[in-house]
Specification:
By secondary structure, the chain is an all-beta fold. 0% of the residues lie in helices and 48% in strands. It contains no helices and 6 strands. The strands form 2 sheets. Strands 3-4-2-6 form a 4-stranded antiparallel β-sheet, with no helix packed on it. A two-stranded antiparallel sheet has the order 1-5. This is Fucolectin-like. InterPro entries: BG_Antigen-Binding_Lectin, FTP1, Galactose-bd-like_sf.
Amino acid sequence: MSCTHTINEQSNPWWRVDLGSTRTIFTVDVYDRVDECCSERLNPFYVHVGHSTSVASNPSCDGEQSISGDYKSVPCNGLQGRYVGVALQGTSRTLTLCEVKVFGV
């Protein structure tokens, strides 16, 4: 599995996907690194779903999340939106993601 990360440490880094139209989202699976490097970078994180291109402006799925192991399944309980994003809060953070799976209708 390949992973991606922000180039430098940043304040409040984020990632988002445009679903192309409004969808009802039930669950988002977020995959982290499982090798010996950098798995701690993702904790804590937030998953957001909504209509704004500004990730953190959208409602959060189930609040602050932590991951241990290769992935975390985050319940979104039917939130609706065109955009799904993963965001970190704080200064000097590096966002590393290996895979994000969005489940909904």
